[in-house]
Amino acid sequence: ANLEHIDMLINYSDLCEKPNLYIKNIISLWDIKKKQVNFPMCKCFDSEYLTGSRLLSKNRENRNTNELDLETLRENIEFPALTSEQIELIINICDKTWLDLQSITL
After folding, report:
1. Cβ atoms within 10 Å, residue 17
2. Which of 98, 53, 100 is nearest to 77 (CA)?
3. What are the backbone angles phi and psi of residue 15, rounded to the nearest 5°?
4. What is the domain partition of the chain in residue ranges?
5. Which 8-state DSSP code applies to residue 53?
6. Which one, of 2, 42, 4, lies nearest residue 23 by Cα?
7. How wide is the angle at C-alpha 37 spanned by C-alphas 29 and 34, nearest 5°?
8. For the chain, what percentages of helix, strand and coil (3-state, to nearest 5) are there?
9. Contact, 24 vs 38, CB < 8 A?
10. What is the pLDDT of residues 12-50, one digit of tens each?
11. C-alpha gyration radius of the chain
12. Which end of the chain is less crowded, N or C, counting CB atoms within 10 A of the terminal residue's CB?
């Protein structure tokens, strides 16, 4: 609907693996003359739904500590792993939208 407002779609796991590549691409969209940025690879937390997690979000942790590298973060499991039924429900609700997003060419 508002695709003209989207410049780029980036998978979270790709951003975690190659942050400098994507930051460089984003900066180039704005034609900013910036020195080379160097971000470390980030730990991808995509599998938390299988293991459980604490309730405080990683974004909030980042804001509290001002640290991008959460590799050594120790956390108590406060929210359990999703059941296979819950995962299937989410897939049924979101799968078509995800496939549609992946097919968009900007």
Report:
1. 13
2. 53
3. -65, -40
4. 1-44, 46-106
5. B
6. 42
7. 55
8. 50, 0, 50
9. no
10. 889 989 988 988 888 888 777 766 778 777 878 888 999
11. 17
12. N
